[in-house]
Amino acid sequence: MSVEPLYHEVLIAGFGGQGIVSAGNLLASAALAEGREVVWAPSYGPEMRGGPVHCTVIVSSERIGSPEVSLADSLLLMDAASMQRFGERIKPTGLMVLNSTLVSARPQTDSLEVLEVPATETAEALGDPRVANVIMLGAFLEARPVVSPESVFEAVQVFAGKAQAGLVDVNREALGRGAALAREVAVRGSFVRGSSVRGS
Q1: Does the residue 197 lie in any domain?
Q2: Among 9, 82, 146, 199, whose Cα sits 20 to 30 Å from the Cα of 32?
Q3: Domain-embedded: residue 195
Q4: What is the pLDDT of residues 9-33, one digit of tens each?
């Protein structure tokens, strides 16, 4: 199976209970299913639930030389503390996806692309706050299609299994809603270089 050249480093951060590690696992599993080389590295704070959590995912079409991510191509930040901790760990022209329900700060640079997604608010409207992470993934993949949403959804089905089959439909809806939010932001003209969204 041949794949197009790709090398993309992603850092996802938030607090325990937001599904940070699960989001990284879904992305990594989808990439593996598409024949990519992958490194997935979760990192937990001193308290798992409520404490700081982040993970990195490297998706590549070639062998990955180092598992370390110094400056990510894309940051997915789920809460304000993560913005403070990781807001500068991104390449100068990278993509920053912010859970705007919980993150009010904006990057002080003009070179980044910033995508503001009310992930927590949208997840609550869908009836399950736990799917905010999948909404963020859907928005990210709309902007940077490093894997297909279909592959992510297949990973959701595997992880849910028969015991949690009820989660499949809401996760499918969350993935699609995240992509739709990214498209809506782009249409409104807000998904642009960072100078246009700072302080909003």
Answers
A1: no
A2: 82
A3: no
A4: 999 999 999 999 999 999 999 999 9
